[in-house]
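Bumping with the actual sequence this time:
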Amino acid sequence: MDTNHHDCITIRDLHLRCIIGIADWERNTRQDVLVHLTLFADLAQAGRSDAIADTINYKTLTKRIIALVEGSSFALIEALATVVADLCLEEPRVRRVRVEVEKPGAPRSARTVGVCIERQNHRKEQAES
């Protein structure tokens, strides 16, 4: 596999609701979160074949993320971002993922607060070396 490609698929502004936060009221009230994803993969074959089998099916992945997040209950957005990253790395073609999670309105003085994490699948990187 050619590792010289720097291809990615982006999913922006995935608007979801879940239990997130540490305050008592946050433990009982679903809140809005925005999830942004960048999935790093070699997309060259898909570009040549024009076949869904040669790429990441982002519709299927998005459905899995929605189910995961909306069924979750975390204190920290860092933890939420980590489980989303882990789910993305289960996809065979994903080499690395950047996950951003924003919690709009927290704190009240800001439009949003968020975290950004990057994780990579070390087994895939070692197999390609």
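The tokens above came from a reply further down the thread. The first helix runs from residue 44 to 49.
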